[in-house]
User: Which sequence fits this backbone?
């Protein structure tokens, strides 16, 4: 959530920068509601001051035996109390409308982010490893895995509906091996492991910026008023909600594992069949709570940590800087790590690494003291997949498949899967 004081003091600049994300953004209603709120507060304070003054006068009049005058003042103060009550109700209504608007306004893009309404106007920062070459026609991972009895989407669909995977045999072992590999990999980078709940309250979803804007995109359990987490970021973001941290605790670095659930409304195209886009997938998420001064440096190191996983697996990938129109609402700067899928001859995003500055921290009231006894300031939050397994699974199957129908696993992964070659 944006700082209303900053909006009030620097309206034109903030509106200009927000319009690089959406040209239709206007802050006028925010300013109008903020002015109404402040006027109401001022009026209430004046009425309360008047009530306090008169209360003292009532006592004096009673002591002086002027009971009629005292009763008149008491009656007048009853009317003042009714006015205060009505103004309090008006203030709550205005604040609710103001918070509703602020809750859906996106974060302010950093000046280093490319400005464009076209999502294709990303900037390629760097590439890693070579694109794999083949002297045979590469099969789509789904077709290849079905031959090896590693994936069974029809039975998954019979259990839960379309786009819910069912891993089988070596497919299940490869999936679990990837989870364990990602999980252990980040321990050496100084991340604290977290195994959090898969469900979150409406407040948790709000803090992470999933609600209210993306309410229709998450699975909701009405009976318990809980939401299935769409990404591990959502639950880890709430780890220090309503807490005040000390400067020497920062940065706090977490690696969290969850299964994630997304409604992903709309039909999937041919290019997204198999493990490319699903309702359920597994992910190790990297998350940081940092100071304001260090957050952009911490973003760069988070990216390096996420890229290192793919490098260890020998998978070709690249890093791109997203334009203003393609960032999540809470982010001020986002890099995507895109991985090469050979059968489609194209890249797919496998990790988004973002700096959300104090946007989520304001919602969750997550603060730190820059120095002992100093006034608390909001932390900055950063997130990035480290990684989601499904597309990595697809890339491994396609990159390391052999013409004899086997998959030669990368050396770093072999201990976690329990074999060097997956055979028919």
Assistant:
């Amino acid at each position: 959530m944006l700082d209303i004081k900053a909006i009030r003091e620097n309206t034109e600049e903030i509106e200009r920068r927000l319009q690089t994300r959406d040209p239709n953004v206007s802050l006028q209603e925010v300013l109008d509601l903020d002015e109404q709120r402040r006027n109401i507060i001022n009026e209430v304070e004046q009425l309360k001051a008047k009530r306090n003054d008169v209360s003292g006068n009532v006592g004096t009049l009673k002591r002086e035996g002027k009971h009629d005058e005292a009763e008149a003042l008491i009656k007048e103060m009853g009317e003042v109390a009714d006015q205060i009550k009505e103004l309090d109700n008006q203030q709550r209504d205005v604040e609710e409308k103001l918070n509703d608007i602020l809750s859906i306004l996106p974060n302010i893009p950093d000046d280093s982010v490319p400005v464009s309404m076209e999502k294709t106007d990303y900037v390629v920062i760097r590439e890693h490893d070579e694109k794999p070459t083949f002297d045979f026609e590469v099969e789509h991972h789904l077709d290849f895995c079905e031959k090896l009895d590693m994936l069974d989407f029809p039975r998954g669909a019979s259990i839960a509906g379309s786009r819910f995977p069912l891993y089988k045999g070596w497919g299940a072992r490869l999936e679990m091996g990837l989870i364990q590999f990602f999980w252990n990999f980040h321990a050496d980078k100084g991340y604290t492991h977290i195994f959090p709940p898969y469900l979150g309250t409406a407040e948790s979803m709000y803090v992470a910026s999933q609600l209210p804007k993306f309410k229709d995109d998450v699975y909701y359990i009405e009976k318990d008023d809980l939401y299935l987490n769409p990404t591990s970021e959502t639950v880890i973001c709430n780890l220090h909600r309503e807490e005040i941290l000390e400067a020497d605790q920062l940065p706090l670095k977490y690696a969290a594992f969850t299964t994630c659930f997304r409604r992903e409304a709309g039909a999937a195209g041919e290019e997204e069949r198999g493990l490319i886009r699903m309702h359920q997938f597994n992910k190790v998420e990297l998350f940081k709570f940092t100071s304001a001064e260090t957050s952009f440096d911490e973003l760069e190191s988070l990216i390096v940590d996420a890229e290192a996983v793919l490098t260890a697996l020998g998978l070709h990938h690249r890093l791109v800087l997203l334009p203003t129109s393609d960032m999540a609402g809470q982010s001020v700067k986002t890099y995507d790590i895109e991985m090469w899928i050979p059968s489609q001859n194209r890249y797919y995003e496998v990790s988004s690494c973002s700096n959300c500055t104090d946007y989520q921290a304001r919602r969750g009231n997550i603060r730190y003291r820059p120095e002992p006894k100093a006034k608390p300031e909001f932390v900055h939050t950063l997130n990035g997949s480290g990684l989601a397994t499904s597309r990595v699974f697809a890339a491994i199957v396609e990159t390391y498949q052999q013409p004899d129908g086997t998959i030669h696993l990368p050396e770093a992964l072999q201990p976690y899967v329990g074999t060097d070659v997956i055979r028919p």
Q: What stands out?
A: The first strand starts at residue 123 and ends at 128. The chain has a mean pLDDT of 94. The radius of gyration is 28 Å. The chain is about 40% helix and 20% strand.
